[in-house]
């Protein structure tokens, strides 16, 4: 019983801290929030996650994220929530609490994400024990592909609960995602096309992302990208009033957070920047954007994030080999190694490799769509077809639930702005499909957007607001029932497990103790070697008992090299 109390108490303390940081960030960046009923509070939770992440990226350069660091960090967040004066704070918290209550079953996990024991847990644990170490990329694959999620999660290392809160942030993303959607859906000012996109997103992502153990580092970013794309779609194609710069500036910190979660979202940023061509006023306001606090924070946060890339690997943007300086630094990864890694990642994404197999001649396999037949058999039928089934079911249920739909008299898809916007979506879809066609690599978001936008454009408007609100309540209830039924069924099965991932300390996930060999270097750093995944092994940990790693210490920082 004490574990359960600690588990949920810590969860809600951290949730309040995140919200407190969100309010603080909005006050500093966009002006004081006077009322939590203000529409811009839809971003508050995400802003809190962003600010904590930014702080963690900065502080890890100098100190480890131990108990003292994290207690002080979240104390500031809690005090910000308590003392920053905002009207209707209690009502906001009540809604967040209800959303969390209906999604809390997803947090009770046994088996974690497949990469959790491989490097997610190891990297996060490393940040709680050490300040940054140069050249960590040479000791393991996970240190070559950085995600800011690890830095965020490391700040949740607290007394009593310790490592068992490392996955809390994933549910925070889902809670704030749901709050954002619900707030926008019930708003009378939301365009009907956009409202349907939000309804589709609410149903699809809660039914697909119902298990936190499957989030990894990918799905949180995909939730953000869906919000960003739909919002930009709304502002550029459906705003009858002149485009307000603030509408764009509100989104900029979220884009930064998204890119730092998974670097491949840079594709959206680069191609999405062409959207400015849709609005002359926005082009003329670029100076205002570049000189804004929002853009400064965006630039600064990505600078710090890519500094960590360089510290860990010698590359500014890993795994892009042309950004690497490893050939000139003895502690960094050489460019040739990253070229091989890029091929391996593409091979894996195209179903040419797995835990127990690997296609011969990978270069030949990944080129000219040679991979397509195998990918269809090994991945599309097994994984994507299932998700397409969920999405199509969402379309059908919503159509039947609000059954006064008819085709629009005018086909909005042929509107020039909308057509241009959708073309960009198709370009991103093609890049995803041709390079890394797995759902985890942005596939959920781009497949959803590609199919949902045309469907939303042809739906007819509702009879009236009362009709909509009544039917929408039924939809929300259905989502809650399915979401929790799937998780309750999963938890029931997991209690009967007998393997490595069996619950042995409910509600905490299984944390096996692994045997390892310690090798203390003359510099003072101890390298721990293990056969298999590191799990709870002290940092730095390398997977391989025969690994030879040298260490030197310069100006208080350790440098690893082979």
In short:
The chain has about 550 residues and is mainly alpha-helical.
How would you describe what is shown here?
By secondary structure, the chain is mostly helical. It has a domain at 517-561. It is built from 21 helices and 7 strands. Strands 3-4-5 form a 3-stranded mixed β-sheet, with no helix packed on it. Strands 1-2 form a two-stranded antiparallel ribbon. The chain has a two-stranded antiparallel sheet with strand order 6-7. A hairpin with a 2-residue loop joins strand 1 (353-354) and strand 2. The N and C termini lie far apart (48 Å). The mean pLDDT is 88.
Question: What is the SS-derived class?
Answer: mainly alpha
Order of helices and strands: HHHHHHHHHHHHHHHHEEHHHHHEEEEE
The helix content, as a percent range, equals 55-70%
Distance between the termini: 48 Å
**Count of alpha and pi helical runs:** 21
Strands, count: 7
Task: Provide the gyration radius in Å.
Answer: 24 Å
Low-confidence stretches: none
What topology, given as strand order, has the largest sheet?
3-4-5
Largest sheet: 3 strands, mixed
Global outline = globular
Report strand %. Answer: under 5%
On the 0 to 100 scale, the average pLDDT is: 88
Features:
single chain; 21 helices; 3-stranded mixed sheet; 562 residues; mainly alpha
Note the topology:
Layout: H1 2-30, H2 44-59, H3 67-83, H4 89-103, H5 116-129, H6 148-154, H7 168-186, H8 192-208, H9 219-237, H10 245-249, H11 252-261, H12 266-272, H13 280-284, H14 286-290, H15 293-313, H16 335-349, E1 353-354, E2 357-358, H17 362-366, H18 372-401, H19 416-435, H20 439-458, H21 465-494, E3 517-520, E4 526-530, E5 541-543, E6 550-554, E7 557-561
Helix pairs in contact: 1-2, 1-3, 2-6, 2-7, 2-11, 4-7, 5-6, 7-8, 7-9, 8-9, 8-18, 8-20, 9-11, 9-20, 11-15, 18-20, 19-20
